[in-house]
Amino acid sequence: ALGAVITTIIYVQAATAVLPLPRRLDPTLIQLGGWDGVSRDLEALCLQHGAGWVASEAYGPASLLAFRAAPGIPVLGAEDRWALFGLPAAAVDGFGLLAISQRRSEPPDAQYWATAEQIGHVVRTRRAAPDGVEAERFRVYRVTTRPGARLVRLPGGRDAPADP
Fold first, then answer.
1. Measuring CA to CA, which residue among 1, 34, 5 is closest to residue 17?
2. What are phi and psi of 129, to 5 degrees?
3. Number of structural domains found in the chain
4. Cα→Cα distances 17→25, 26, 106, Å
């Protein structure tokens, strides 16, 4: 009986975040919380700055951003690991936005970006600030691609083909 109660509490917390647990104690927040908000914030920055796409140099965030991205905003992966998936190279014009976690201290990777200018940040939270628990903060750069850089366009959750 005690096991069922504890399991129920864990499921309720994972589904609703009824208790505002700190990041270090909430694995669902660390991995899953707040990606819809980050996608909306990046979409707003794309519109504000006239950017044509969003990119990430990290495999996990790139995948989650692609899954949550608004239709019409391509998400690019800029990491050597993407070559293993056989995804087509991204044909990009103009500039886009690059999101890099503030947990990484290194600047944007020069093998992919000809220019990179930091224009702001977005925050991934479980709930809207100021009450939300912060999961991760991203620096946002206005970038242009380096000629010959191997970038891939990731299939998106909202614009992926329907299952037959």
1. 34
2. -65, 155
3. 1
4. 12, 9, 32
Residue 74 makes CB contacts below 8 A (sequence gap 6+) with 52, 53, 54, 90, 92, 153, 154, 156
Other beta carbons less than 10 A from residue 21's beta carbon: 15
Report whether the peptide linkage leading into residue 130 is cis, meaning its omega lies within 30 degrees of zero.
yes
Domain membership of residue 41 (yes or no) is yes
Cα separation of 151 and 112, whole Å? 8
- 132: containing domain: 22-153
pLDDT in tens, 91-127: 888 899 999 999 888 999 999 999 999 999 999 887 6
What secondary structure letter does DSSP report for 89?
B
Strands 95-101 and 54-56: parallel
In a domain, 163, yes or no: no
Phi, psi of 87 (to 5 degrees): -75, 150
